[in-house]
Amino acid sequence: MATDEEIAFIHTEEYINAVKLAGEGKLEKSIAMTYGLGTEDTPMFPNMHEASALLVGGTLTAVDAVLSGKVKHALNLGGGLHHGFRGKASGFCIYNDSSIAMKYIQKKYGLRVLYIDTDAHHGDGVQWSFYDDPNVCTISLHETGRYLFPGTGAVNERGQGNGYNYSFNVPLDAFTEDASFLDSYRTVVKEVAAYFKPDIILTQNGADAHYYDPLTHLCATMNIYREIPKLAREIANEYCDGRWIAVGGGGYDHWRVVPRAWALIWLEMNNIQNISGYLPPEWIDAWKGQAETDLPLTWEDPDNMYQPIPRKPEIEEKNALTVAKSLEIIRNNMTKSLY
Fold it and tell me: Which of the residues are catalytic?
């Protein structure tokens, strides 16, 4: 479990105390609301602080496992709570484990971190934690905030002060499909990694860009969840001697999407690739009695999962322009260096 001192790398003492009181049933509702607690997204519950600190501790344990040299990659599916702010809970997130972990990496190991967030919701809490810090570079690939919480993550959110041009946002249009999503992801991650040259990578792996997800409007399939960790590992091997920490995140189709998507991260970390066909029957037998919908039978999604998207060419063109805008300062600087 993370200590109060570790949590305070990011969160204020007043907020930590409020979370503790909320977990003891001692925080007045009017006061709780000022901290983002007691809302529909982040209700108060017993042992709130302890449960949240355990999630943070899992990510810090992953950090130490990698940076002590025990392993090259580490995965904490309980992490990825990227909406947590210094003094406020938001979007199901109380303590921001990724932000705490990256500050922990800076303090204990003195390394530069590349954060890659592919949750359908903008990684706002992490971005604002390091908005003026040139030693943490954040990438967020998400559905445009015009239609989706938290409404931030525009291309022009590039950082401030010394952190300017170390924050990269790619707000994708609603109904974006696999090809455009992956083209955007590969282009931005490769170019930003070459620009920043990180010492370690931390990826947030929300599984809510999938077509089945009930809270978002993207049209991805399991194909992207096979490719996202694959490129992350390639980048880690190229720049970071393999050092890669992955955490979970959003994902609200708990039966058909999240188990497969997150299993693919673990498989990639263990260099088990190209797995396809039927899912393990043991998994289906174990959960089919509890599932609220029919479980998938294969790693892949069916080809006819949804009807053709009528605006596909326009969406792809718009996303390509968004990527170009996100990377324009990097590309302009590269062009100038040639002359």
Answer: 83
